[in-house]
Amino acid sequence: MDGRAPAGRSTVADSHVSFLKSMFLKIMSDPDLYGFGRDDRRSRWHHETAEFRGVDNGFAAVLDFELAERKTRKEHKKAERAAG
């Protein structure tokens, strides 16, 4: 994977992928992405602030965090549907 969008498609993240040596995690429907910066440190690109922040956790911890976040979002959506 070279971090480029398919021909004819582009994402906001595409312009920032060049700041990463390699991307290692992209969550579907989330423009933020994880990768290794030029300093070989794990980083997360935050689309709202357009900046990279170092990530001190290993891959397994990052994946656990993202899965927990997904579960929280799913439960929140279910509660919204039930309420309205």
Comma- or semicolon-separated keywords:
84 residues; alpha+beta; four-stranded antiparallel beta sheet; 4 strands; 30% helix; disordered N terminus
Tally of DSSP helical segments: 1
How do the helices and strands follow one another from N- to C-terminus?
Answer: EEEEH
Characterize the main sheet: 4 strands, antiparallel
Proportion of beta-strand residues: 25-35%
Overall pLDDT, averaged?
78
Whole-number radius of gyration? 15 Å
Termini gap = 42 Å
- Coarse structural class: alpha+beta
Helix content estimate: 25-40%
Which strand order spans the largest sheet, edge to edge or round the barrel? 1-2-3-4
Q: Can you count the beta strands?
A: 4
User: Given the C-alpha coordinates, what overall shape results?
Assistant: elongated
Low-confidence stretches: 1-13
